[in-house]
């Protein structure tokens, strides 16, 4: 779809804000970018000429494309057995300490071929896309050696080529200690910083760098080493921080001007202020909170008081958030964290774009922005967070192209 495409008769929410809807709007797209949008009555004549292709949206609600800014979509196997163990009483940390948990996914991921990993991940990606996701972050972190981390990141890149979706890759070599480095965490961090990261950057596989800073992950000093290595390559950083305990990771991440600190259930006010000062986004992951039956919710009141932008993501992963529904995460963020509809919608559009830090992802309908938008079969934006399961998405446009079209299915 090159040339000019004009989408008319939309009820347009340019920033996904329920209080700002442009009735009877048009969006004019040239190639991949939005060139004009506004009330149809003001559509410039150039967009009404024969050279423009017009698509009538029939009064449907339109939002920016949704952004899932924290996922671990690529991995081998799954952990349904571990789920059963946890139901019988074992905790997530106990299982991790006994060599289960992340490490069992590492074995399955190392054993899988690139094609196997692609085949399982593309199903999960397609499930996200079916709900209007046009951009997704994908982390490595289940390979934990150069060869397997490379394999994961190559699959992530391939997913972005195989499907109309913008993929941002994140190197999470410091996700867990691989068994062959037991008792030698510092040596492993050296490998991550001085061997794995340089090689993967050289191959163009890394857009950002992440660390799991936790008592069952890496400590502050080790996390800082990873951030310093990222700095040498001018790569932005992010952190899995304060998920199971208060480690001070979010403040450290803020010191390195992190795009985001993620999870944050145990975040304190000093960490919130540091994030605010650094402009880091707080990425909340209600699926993980729900699935591990966490009881301490993230500090919403503090985040609001200090005006830290909040994003919502799936954390799609086999251990703590085996979900492929970003819309369900909106529902959970509202019900479990008492967030408002406006907050959660900003959390998967404008704020998620900031957390992603990708030049092709703006998270809003704006002149000059990539033409990423979703047409919904709903009456109000609240329905995006209200239903669980109903198929609400009818059409997805990504970078100006029709990425998904379910209009013919509807009767
Ligand atoms: N935090 C999480 O929730 C996931 N990783 C992380 O750092 C869990 C990963 C897993 O259990 O496989
Ligand atoms: Fe995660």
What is this structure, in a nutshell?
The chain is of the alpha/beta class. The chain has helices at 80-87, 92-97, 102-111, 114-129, 146-162, 185-202, 220-232, 249-255, 269-278, 286-291, 300-305, 326-337, 341-347, 350-356, 382-386, and strands at 4-12, 22-30, 33-39, 52-64, 66-68, 133-139, 166-174, 208-212, 237-241, 260-263, 281-284, 310-312, 373-376, 393-398, 401-405.
List the helices and strands in order.
EEEEEHHHHEHEHEHEHEHEHHEHHHEHEE
Helix content estimate? 25-40%
Q: How many helices does DSSP assign?
A: 15
Low-confidence stretches: none
- What's the arrangement of strands in the largest beta sheet? 5-6-7-8-9-10-11-12
Average pLDDT score: 96
Distance between the termini: 26 Å
Judged by helices, strands and strand pairing, the structural class is: alpha/beta
Sheet with the most strands, sense and barrel status: 8 strands, parallel
**Which ligands does the model contain, each kind named once?**
3-[(4S)-2,5-dioxoimidazolidin-4-yl]propanoic acid, fe (iii) ion
The total of beta strands comes to 15
**Beta strand %:** 15-25%
Radius of gyration of CA atoms, rounded to a whole number:
21 Å
Seen as an oligomer or otherwise, the chain set is single chain
Cα shape: globular
């Amino acid at each position: 779809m090159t040339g000019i495409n004009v989408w008319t008769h939309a009820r347009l929410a340019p920033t996904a804000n329920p209080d700002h809807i442009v009735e009877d709007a048009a969006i004019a797209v040239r190639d991949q970018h939005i060139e004009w949008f506004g009330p149809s009555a003001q559509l410039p004549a150039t967009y009404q000429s024969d050279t423009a292709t017009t698509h009538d949206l029939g009064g449907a609600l339109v939002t920016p494309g949704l952004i899932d800014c924290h996922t671990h979509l690529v991995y081998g196997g799954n952990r349904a057995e571990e789920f059963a163990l946890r139901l019988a009483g074992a905790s997530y940390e106990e299982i991790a300490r006994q060599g289960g948990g992340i490490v069992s996914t590492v074995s399955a991921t190392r054993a899988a071929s690139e094609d196997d990993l692609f085949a399982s991940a593309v199903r999960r990606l397609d499930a996200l896309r079916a709900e209007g996701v046009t951009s997704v972050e994908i982390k490595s972190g289940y390979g934990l050696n150069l060869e397997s981390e490379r394999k994961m990141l190559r699959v992530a890149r391939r997913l972005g080529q195989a499907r109309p979706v913008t993929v941002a890759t994140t190197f999470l070599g410091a996700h867990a200690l691989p068994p062959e480095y037991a008792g030698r965490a510092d040596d492993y961090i050296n490998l991550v910083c001085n061997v794995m990261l340089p090689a993967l950057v050289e191959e163009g596989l890394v857009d950002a760098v992440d660390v799991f800073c936790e008592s069952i992950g890496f400590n502050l000093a080790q996390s800082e080493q990873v951030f310093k290595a990222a700095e040498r390559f001018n790569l932005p950083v992010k952190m899995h921080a304060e998920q199971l305990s208060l480690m001070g990771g979010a403040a450290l991440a803020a010191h390195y001007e992190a795009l985001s600190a993620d999870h944050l259930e145990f975040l304190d006010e000093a960490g919130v202020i540091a994030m605010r000062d650094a402009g880091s986004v707080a990425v909340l992951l209600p699926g993980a909170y729900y699935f591990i039956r966490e009881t301490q919710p993230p500090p919403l009141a503090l985040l609001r008081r200090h005006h830290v932008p909040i994003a919502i993501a799936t954390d799609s992963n086999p251990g703590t958030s085996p979900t492929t529904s970003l819309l369900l995460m909106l529902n959970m963020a509202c019900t479990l964290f008492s967030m408002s509809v406006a907050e959660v919608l900003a959390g998967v559009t404008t704020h998620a774009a900031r957390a992603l830090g990708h030049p092709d992802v703006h998270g809003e309908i704006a002149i000059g922005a990539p033409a990423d938008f979703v047409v919904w079969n709903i009456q109000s934006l609240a329905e995006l967070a209200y239903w669980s399961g109903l198929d609400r998405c009818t059409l997805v446009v990504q970078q100006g192209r029709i990425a998904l079209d379910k209009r013919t299915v509807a009767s």
